[in-house]
Each structure stands twice: as C-alpha cells, then as structure tokens.
Specification:
The chain is mainly β. It is built from no helices and three strands. It is rod-shaped, with a radius of gyration of 22 Å.
C-alpha cells in the first residue's frame, strides 16, 4: 500500500505523507561529502486535503419517478 504524496513546502518535491507528516527526505541536488542532511521540510505537518465535493445537492428535488426508500 503506497502513501499519498504531496509537494514539500520547502523543496517542492513530491514527498510521501505518513501519519499526517511529510516523510524524511534529502533536499534536491548533489551532496557534497559524506554527510547526511535532511530537507527542512522533513517531518513537517502536512496540510489537510481539500474537502470532497458533495455527490448530490440535498436541496435539489429527486428525479421524476424516483420513490423514497423508506
């Protein structure tokens, strides 16, 4: 199962979001030396996704000929 991916707010790369936080990742580009560095956007709280659009308008009348279920 893959994690959803979103753009990192610092380096703008597509990063996996695990547990509401961006996964730890290196900044783009080549590293100088053998030191390991993480992007400042690593482990930041990811913004919530936009709410889903409603499937139907509750104020709109039902289709003609449609009967209530209950």
């Amino acid at each position: 199962m893959s994690s959803p991916r979103r753009a990192c707010p610092v380096c703008t790369r597509e990063i996996a979001v695990v547990g509401g936080r961006f996964a730890r990742h290196d900044p783009p580009g080549r590293r100088t030396g053998l030191e390991l560095i993480s992007c400042p956007g690593s482990r930041r709280i990811a913004p919530l996704m936009a709410p889903a659009e409603p499937l139907f308008d509750p104020e709109e009348p039902p289709f003609p000929g449609q009967q209530p279920l209950f």
